[in-house]
Task: inverse folding
């Protein structure tokens, strides 16, 4: 019989599966597990959003891939009101089935392939690499294109920016974003900024506490008023507890958007109409966003000093839902010490070689579980 190539994609094992023995160890704690690993929201979806979903539940027809005009107007209004981005064309925005599928498929939808390079942050969400692999392109780690060898840099066609960053919580100011955009444009590369934690800035980036808004890559200070070769991705999973809805969107370059919309039509990548309506209502309601952020602010204020007392140095973490810390030891040793206390944390090695020695702690656990983690960490000290 002729030897044939195996079916299936040759992708790495899903990294979170390797946490299984540490989850088992944590589960043996008499007080139960405190899961601070995967940052999944646990608080209720706001009622105003649930009501909008229910009101739109009679949806017998196919939804539109580009998004309803009302949703696209809501996205444009949100960028203007919350992100300081004016004059965005409603035709240049599009809902997506969550942001992860967008990250995974965007290099392919942009036409990248063998020989092309996708640059991503040195410590980064692993799906950036998977997206490059699905397109047959090459992923390289670089926070600045000037750090790349000339041969590699010449092949960069796409640059991922992640600000606020996952897992590090790094925020790039407008000048830093402008430098990246200028570098990429100089060689015809597209910059895509993953901005899913933009409403969750702390300290100098916490507007409610007198700070500045986290800047978008679409900000005029970054683009000079020209959106060519620039895209912004955003998700409602974190700010509105809509992870289960798969509600996100893409906005930016009006020349790139028609091809992306057409390709997604062919592939059936469509956000259901009830979810589009829930998104529209969520984007127009700032009150629930502020209330949810207040919960995370309180949890952060409890968890941060307890983790530091336990011996971790917290780096960056000026935005987002995570604390990024190191105890100056191997990542898995730290993961194991937390597991002995019944606490599951995310290994920094999941986010690239530069994450070795670090762990990521999520603030998405309930108040009761955060309090339990704090008590255990204090007792251990």
Result:
């Amino acid at each position: 019989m002729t030897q044939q190539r195996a079916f299936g994609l040759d992708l790495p094992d899903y990294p979170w599966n390797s946490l299984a023995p540490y989850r088992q160890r944590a589960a043996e704690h008499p007080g139960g597990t405190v899961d601070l690993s995967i940052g999944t929201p646990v608080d209720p979806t706001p009622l105003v959003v649930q009501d909008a979903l229910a009101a739109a539940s009679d949806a017998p027809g196919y939804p539109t891939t580009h998004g309803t005009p009302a949703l696209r107007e809501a996205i444009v209004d949100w960028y203007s009101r919350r992100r300081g981005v004016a004059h965005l064309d409603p035709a240049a925005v599009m809902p997506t089935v969550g942001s992860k599928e967008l990250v995974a498929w965007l290099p392919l939808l942009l036409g990248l392939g063998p020989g092309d390079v996708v640059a991503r942050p040195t410590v980064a969400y692993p799906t950036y690499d998977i997206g490059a692999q699905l397109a047959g392109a090459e992923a390289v780690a670089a926070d600045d294109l000037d750090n790349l060898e000339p041969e590699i840099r010449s092949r960069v066609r796409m640059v991922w920016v992640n600000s606020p960053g996952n897992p590090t919580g790094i925020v790039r100011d407008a000048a830093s974003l402008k430098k990246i955009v200028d570098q990429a444009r100089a060689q015809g590369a597209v910059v895509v900024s993953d901005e899913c934690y933009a409403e969750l800035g702390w300290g100098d980036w916490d507007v409610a506490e007198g700070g500045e808004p986290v800047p978008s890559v679409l900000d005029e200070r970054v683009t000079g008023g020209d959106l060519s070769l620039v895209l912004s991705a955003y998700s409602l999973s974190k700010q509105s507890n809509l992870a289960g809805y798969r509600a996100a969107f893409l906005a930016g370059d009006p020349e790139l958007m028609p091809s992306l919309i057409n390709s997604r039509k062919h592939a059936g990548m469509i956000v259901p109409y009830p979810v589009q309506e829930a998104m529209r209502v969520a984007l127009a309601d700032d009150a629930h966003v502020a209330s949810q952020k207040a919960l995370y602010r309180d949890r952060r204020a409890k968890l941060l000093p307890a983790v530091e007392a336990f011996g971790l140095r917290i780096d960056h973490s000026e935005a987002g839902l995570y604390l990024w810390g190191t105890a100056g030891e191997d990542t898995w040793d730290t993961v194991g010490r937390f597991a002995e206390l019944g606490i599951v944390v995310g290994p920094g090695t999941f986010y690239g070689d530069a994450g070795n020695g670090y762990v990521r702690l999520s603030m998405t656990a309930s108040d009761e579980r955060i309090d339990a983690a704090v008590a255990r960490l204090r007792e251990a000290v």
Observations:
- The chain has a mean pLDDT of 96.
- The chain is about 40% helix and 15% strand.
- The radius of gyration is 21 Å.
- The longest strand covers residues 156-162.
